[in-house]
């Protein structure tokens, strides 16, 4: 139960606080652009938890990020670094929540959906 609370706090607490705060310094297109890095976070966290490195998963994540970057890039304002860092914390905590939930459910199966 504590594991689920920690995952929820990461995924819905930290993630959305950072996301909300990023809108104070970034434009909507910048927020959309910077959230495309989430697949990289997911891949790297999953590999770290499994103590392995999967270059194909990293390559797939990079292709997804590059493709999304081509689609979403619309220029940047000069003062975006703080918002970028907030969004990377949000991306990381969201990705960590996703990966940790997968590992928690695998370790403690339940009949509940």
UniProtKB/TrEMBL annotation:
**Chain segments annotated as transmembrane:** 5-25, 56-74, 80-101
The entry's keywords: Membrane, Transmembrane, Transmembrane helix
Q: Does the keyword Flavoprotein apply?
A: no
- InterPro entries named in the record: EmrE-like
Q: What is this protein called?
A: Membrane protein
Q: Which organism is it from?
A: Pseudomonas syringae pv. maculicola
Classification from the root reads: Bacteria, Pseudomonadati, Pseudomonadota, Gammaproteobacteria, Pseudomonadales
């Amino acid at each position: 139960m504590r594991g689920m609370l920690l995952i929820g706090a990461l995924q819905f607490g930290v993630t959305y606080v950072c996301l909300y705060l990023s809108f104070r310094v970034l434009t909507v297109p910048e927020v959309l652009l910077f959230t495309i890095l989430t697949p990289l976070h997911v891949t790297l966290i999953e590999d770290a938890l499994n103590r392995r490195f999967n270059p194909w998963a990293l390559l797939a994540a990079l292709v997804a990020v590059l493709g999304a970057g081509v689609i979403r890039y619309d220029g940047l304002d000069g003062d975006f670094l703080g918002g970028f860092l907030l969004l990377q914390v949000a991306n990381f905590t969201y990705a960590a929540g996703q990966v940790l939930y997968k590992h928690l459910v695998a370790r403690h199966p339940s009949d509940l959906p």
